[in-house]
Design goal:
Length: about 70
């Protein structure tokens, strides 16, 4: 796996293939709940999530996917 330094250029820009939009919704239940929708900007892949675990699973799957070179 590449080091953090190798992932970003010297200008500090973030790679678009690692960009996500995460929209959180309020829960009717009390306490902390992670519910909402996440979209990977480069691929358009999107998912609804109802827990922090589901959100992290989606992010991990997209970030660890092999890239075309």
């Amino acid at each position: 796996m590449a080091t953090d330094e190798a992932r970003y250029d010297s200008a500090g820009t973030l790679p678009a293939n690692r960009a996500f939009v995460i929209h959180f919704r309020m829960s009717a239940r009390r306490g902390r709940r992670f519910i909402g929708r996440v979209e990977h900007l480069a691929s358009g892949a999107a998912a609804e999530f109802g827990s922090l675990r589901a959100l992290m699973t989606f992010l991990t799957r997209l970030l660890e996917a092999p890239r075309d070179r």
